[in-house]
Every structure is written in structure tokens, then in C-alpha cells.
Amino acid sequence: MHFENTMKIFVSILLFFGFYPCFGNNAVPKANSVHSDSLNLNAGISFAEKQEYDSARFFLLKSAESTDIPIKTESYLYLNFIETRLENYELAMTYLEQYHKNAMTLFHRAMETEKIKGHSDNLTDTILSIKRRNKLNLFLWGIFMLMLLAAISILIYLHRKGVRFFSKVKNVKLKNLDSEIESKREQIRIIGYSSFALQADIFKQTPLYAEIKALENQGRDKNAKVLNYEKQNLLEKELNRTFTNFQSTLMDSGAKLTQNDIKLCCLSLLPINNWAKALCFGSTDISIVKQRKHYIKQKMTKDSDNLSLFEFIFSATRNS
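The structure assignment produced for this chain is given below.
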């Protein structure tokens, strides 16, 4: 305890002398504030790794008050880790919700940035297109006047050639536009998949996930312990709460998935094997998981166009 108090005083002195020159101007620059929050975060992480949780909590709570969203998000993640280790599950759940809230804020900011960048790119392309079109029109107008003086026959010839030229340019632009649209769709799809993985990371912080991993490590026989009905109901509620966006995407995909189908999809985003998934359904028979996966593939690939989403959910590297 004496060592922890000494460290607190030492870090406080460092922070005081690091920012003292700013006090004369009656203002602390935002960059220094963020630097201070970063120091608090690093100090909290260092103490957490040493399992000195009181000191870690002290610095992490300070960094959690930061105006910098990434620092605040990571602070709540480590606070959740500490309280989970100390079995303060109610407080840990509060920090987990704050982590989820700030992580979603980061995600929405990324989406807004991407949207603004897309609008800016489209506006730039439009301006360049107008400039090119004006230059081309001016050039053609000059040719038109010269050809009018030269001969009507030459004018007709050049006019037809110009029509063919415009047709080719238009086709090239349409192809480029299709390629850009497809690229934007792929970027949005990747961002969406990243948000699903983030929801899985949040679920991994819950006590229920730890219980599932414990069941996964037991011997594989018919007498193995499974999730009872009460735990299954609790699992379904927790999945509904944590994977809200992911479940909305599944329901809007047109694949006509059942509630158990969606449950298996959520479990498949977690690093657990088919044995653990079967236990979550209250069974020791792995075949029920394989059969349901087969039906889901039928619905998502043949009955609807969701092949990429299916491959992401049942990734071989995650569902070994």
C-alpha cells in the first residue's frame, strides 16, 4: 500500500511540473490535456498488469474522464477487466456498457467521416467533369466554325465522329462509376463486419461467456454438463442485448432465419467450437449444430444473396 501511495504522489508531481508552464496563460491546451489523459491511461494499464488494482482503478477513472473518445473507450475496457477480476459484476457491467457506448460513438464517427469523404470525392469528380466538358465543348465549337467555313460535307463527317467519341467517353465514365460504387459498398460492408466483431468482443467480457468456455473444456461425453433452461434464457437475453445491430442485419437480410438460427449465428462470432455451441442449446450432440448450419447456409446462399455474410459468420479461422 505504501508503494502504491508513493507512485500516486510521483505521477501527480510529474503531471504538475509537466503542465505548470500552461497555468500562467490561464488555459491548458487540448493537446496537453490529452497527453495527461494518455499518461493516466498508461499508468492504469501498467498497474492492472501488475495486478495492483486499486492504483490501476485510480488512474483509469481519471483517464475515463478524458474528452478523447479512444482514451475513454480503452479506460472503460480495462475498468471492466479489473472489476470482473474482482467479481464486482454489477460495476463491471456498468463499465462494459460505457465501453460499448463509446465504441459505438467511434464507429458512428468513422461512418460519418467516410460519408463526408464520399460526398467530397463526388463533388470533386463532378467539378472536374464539368471543367473537362466545358473545355471539350469549346474545342468542338472552334472546330465546328472552321468546318462550317470549309465545307458542309466535312462538318457532317466530324459531327458523326464527335458523336462516336462522346459515346465512348460516356461508356468509360459509366464503367468507372460502377467500379467506384462497388468499392464503396465493399468498404461499408467491411465497416459493418468490424462492428459485429466489436460486439463479440464486448460479449466476451461477460461472466456468461466465461461459463461457456468452462463448459467447452470439459470431457466430451453424453453426461457432460450443459446450459440449463434458465441459463439458456439468460444467454438469449444477453445475445439480444449485445448483438442488437448484428441481429437486425440478419433479420433484414431476407434469409427468413428462425430465432435459433440467429442464436447460432451470434455464437459463431465467438471463438468457441461446435461442442460448446451444442452445450449452449442444451445438447451434447454436435450434429445439431452442423445440421442447423447447413439449413442457415441454404437460406443465406440459395434462398437469398448473403454469401459473403455467411462466410464471415462461419469463418473457419474463428469456428475451429
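Interim note for the steering committee: DSSP finds 13 helices and no strands in the chain. The domain at 2-87 is CATH 1.20.58 (Methane Monooxygenase Hydroxylase; Chain G, domain 1).
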